What we know:
This protein has helices spanning 30-34, 41-48, 62-77, 101-109, 125-138, 229-250, 268-278, 289-292, 299-309; strands at residues 13-22, 27-29, 52-54, 86-90, 115-119, 144-152, 170-180, 186-194, 202-203, 226-227, 260-263, 285-286, 318-325, 329-336.
Amino acid sequence: MNRPINDHxxxxxxxxxxxxxxxxxxxLTNDDLSxxxxxxDEWIAARTGIKVRHITTDDETTAFLATEAARRALAEANFxxxxxxxxxxxxxxxxxxxxxxxxxxxxxxxxKKAWVFDLAAACSGFVYGLSIAQQFLENGRCxxxxxxxxxxxxxxxxxxxxTSCILFGDGAGAVLLERSSDGxxxxxxxxxxxxxxxxxxxxxxxxxxxxxAAKKLxxxxxxxxxxxxxxxxxxxxxxxxxxxxxCLEACNLSIDEVGMFISHQMNxxxxxxxxxxxxxPDEKVFLNIAEYGNTSSASVPIAFDECVRKGGIKRGxxxxxxxxxxxLTWGANVIQF
Length: 337
């Protein structure tokens, strides 16, 4: 497709040069969960689309997952780590309070030239990270950037809460962006939004300045994720539909011109409901939540990597990433791969 996408025509584009993902070997099936809480494979699959999720061991940290995904993305692009200029790690389950998880990834990769930081936007983090890196590459500040979504959500999961423990898994995905003057490839459009009024719908309250480690919690469950499922469902469907519609209108695209929609894998029912409202054909909506569960910021890069490797996306095709997460936060990237 050679016609202009929109009126934003920078001298450079941020092109995906490599992609990779990594998940722990250990798995937890729905049948396994049925022995831990009052649930069943049928109940979980019907409501979420999830069958299995990958679980980290004690030794597998967020930085470890992020580094492995990054190495695969670099290898796929045949790119040397010592040439990386920027590393962004999107995560809400960091290695520690500080320094940033990105610092540990930089150290493990040997990316001595890179400046690095973490980004906390929950499930929207990876898409936010792509949009931020896009600006640095388009304006010529950087030649390349490594964007990683990595989470160890099972480390902040309440395994006695049957409504939430069924949802989450661990994993990481990464893409290497390179600056290119070829306007026929790259990130064509990005949009991001937030609404802090709904913060209680998805949260993990301890331990931050509101509930510091030195102060006894009034509710011990605040160390775990807390979710208001119905509110999240309604907001997610609405925001995904609005955001994809915005992307299509801003880029003057029809559904037929988009090769694949990669949504955050939050819940199969949410994705299917949004797709139905958008009149998206099934073959253009990639789903892999059954094998991984909700991996927050890691879900889009894991899904993208898997979809490409399965032949679902080819070079030159238009791909839309769309996300929704705690904050509330949501956003999308339109990419000519």
